[in-house]
Amino acid sequence: MTPEPSTPESTPRTRGERHTRNRRKPLPVWVHILLALVLVAVLRNFVVQSFYVPSGSMIPTLQIGDRVVVSKFGGEVKRGDIVVFDGTDTFGGGSSARWSGTFGKVASGIGGIFGIDPGEKDYVKRVIGVGGDHIVCCDADGKLTINGTSVNEPYLVSGMSPSDVPFDVIVPAGRLWMMGDNRSNSADSRAHLGDPGGGMVPVADVIGSPMFRYWPMGRLGGMGDIAHSSELASIPAGNGS
What we know:
Layout: H1 12-22, H2 29-47, E1 48-52, E2 67-71, E3 82-86, H3 101-113, E4 122-129, E5 134-137, E6 144-146, E7 149-151, E8 167-170, E9 175-179, E10 200-202, E11 206-215, E12 221-222, H4 230-233
Antiparallel strand pairs: 1-2, 2-11, 3-4, 3-11, 4-9, 5-6, 5-8, 6-7, 9-10, 11-12
Keywords: Hydrolase, Membrane, Protease, Transmembrane, Transmembrane helix
Catalytic activity: Cleavage of hydrophobic, N-terminal signal or leader sequences from secreted and periplasmic proteins
EC number: 3.4.21.89
């Protein structure tokens, strides 16, 4: 009787070859770079974005040189919120200020993927009025009034007037009336009363609200209640009259 052939035992070399065959090949470097770029694009477009404060229009709340992280999950924009917005078409001279020509279109297309518009002009201000609000400055006591209610503005420097420029405006639906906390040095909605749109910023142009200051280190921390005003938010809505 012929003996059955025995199955050879796996040798160390055979096991090593099998292990090598089963090991996944590492992804190319370009794939890692592409994934990183996609992650950056998603974060910048839909989650958070970093901004630098170049002027003193929001002193004392925000100082020149502050760097803040803006959340894009803020939801409804409320009266009293500090927001960053694209003011190209309202404060920045209009769409003609955006890049044009072949290079401009290419740059805008690439930048758009990452949430960057080379011609975009971003601003940071406080929302003083929303659609339907009637805002007047100033009343007999020298205070700002919203829908007939005089308001205290604790975010202003002590002794600062709510506005050296008198105004009486009604905010259209879908628009915002913006003012800087440093009223004597802020080119805000008041400075554009004579422009098309009357200085009112479309709600759709709001990018988000600052939630964290990461520079300078001495001012590191969350924005907290300073980025909002419960007193302004609690004023009853206006009816556009």
